[in-house]
Amino acid sequence: MNLTLKIWRQQGPQDKGKMVDYKVSDISEHMSFLEMMDVLNEQLINKGEEPVAFDHDCREGICGMCSMYINGEAHGPDRGVTTCQLHMRMFKDGDTITIEPFRAKAFPVIKDLVVDRSSFDRIQHAGGFISVNTSGNTQDANAILIDKHDADTAMDAATCIGCGACVASCKNSSAMLFVGAKVSQYALLPQGQVEAVDRVKNMVAQMDLEGFGNCTNTGACEVECPKGISLENIARMNREFLSANIKG
Ligand code: SF4
Ligand code: FES
């Protein structure tokens, strides 16, 4: 395949940035999107030009690093996959592909396609943990009976990889699907009850402090989430938040 790429180039946080056109040739439909980007960068390096900066790590849908907005969609046109799992067979020979960073006030651009998502880390630090007995006589986790439905729902919430596609897809740059998943994975389990009240209050407060917008039930986050995190998690977070504020 031969492709035209329109890529956001931005030297640093203070640079205005602009779209730049590139041509790439001999792209196999079996390549992943990031492998196609590697080919482009090799071409740029060989020509003495600066390669396009983009985030990646695991390249297998686990780490959540590969934040790219491709043809107007977070992680591109496929469903249930991250950019590193997106294959070039989703595109046609001669296509023009637009590639931008995830855009949100709380995700400032560092360079080109790389954004700073440490706001998510700070939300996690605010409450995304549990207290456990590490004295050596810790109770075996399997000794605590947990309703199968609750265990499955908590595990579904825990599959959130913190990629930020929900924020990038939301017209309000809301992080409520992410925070809802992180609150839910503990709220559904007995181990999460010790800090439950403080957790939801602190995580929501940090989310607001970081400058994320509010949820207006559009649902774009759920559609674009590569892990299929359900909007039910936002509803659960809202219930937890209300209940925590009533408890004081
Ligand atoms: S909820 Fe989905 S889209 Fe949002 S950070 Fe988690 S995995 Fe990514
Ligand atoms: S590089 Fe890890 S999820 Fe894409």
From TrEMBL:
Keyword hit for Transmembrane helix: no
Keyword line: 2Fe-2S, 4Fe-4S, Iron, Iron-sulfur, Metal-binding, Oxidoreductase
Pfam families on file: Fer2_3, Fer4_8
4Fe-4S ferredoxin-type domain segment(s): 151-181
Record flagged with keyword Manganese: no
Cofactor section: [2Fe-2S] cluster; [3Fe-4S] cluster; [4Fe-4S] cluster
PROSITE patterns: 2FE2S_FER_1 (PS00197), 4FE4S_FER_2 (PS51379)
Superkingdom field: Bacteria
Record GO terms (molecular function): 2 iron, 2 sulfur cluster binding; 4 iron, 4 sulfur cluster binding; electron transfer activity; metal ion binding; oxidoreductase activity
Cross-referenced InterPro entries: 2Fe-2S_ferredoxin-like_sf (IPR036010), 2Fe2S_fd_BS (IPR006058), 4Fe4S_Fe-S-bd (IPR017896), Beta-grasp_dom_sf (IPR012675), Helical_ferredxn (IPR009051), SDH/FRD_Iron-Sulfur (IPR050573), Succ_DH/fum_Rdtase_Fe-S (IPR004489), Succ_DH/fum_Rdtase_N (IPR025192)
A biological process term (GO) from this entry: tricarboxylic acid cycle
Family: Belongs to the succinate dehydrogenase/fumarate reductase iron-sulfur protein family.
Protein name: Succinate dehydrogenase / fumarate reductase iron-sulfur subunit
Protein species of origin: Arenibacter nanhaiticus
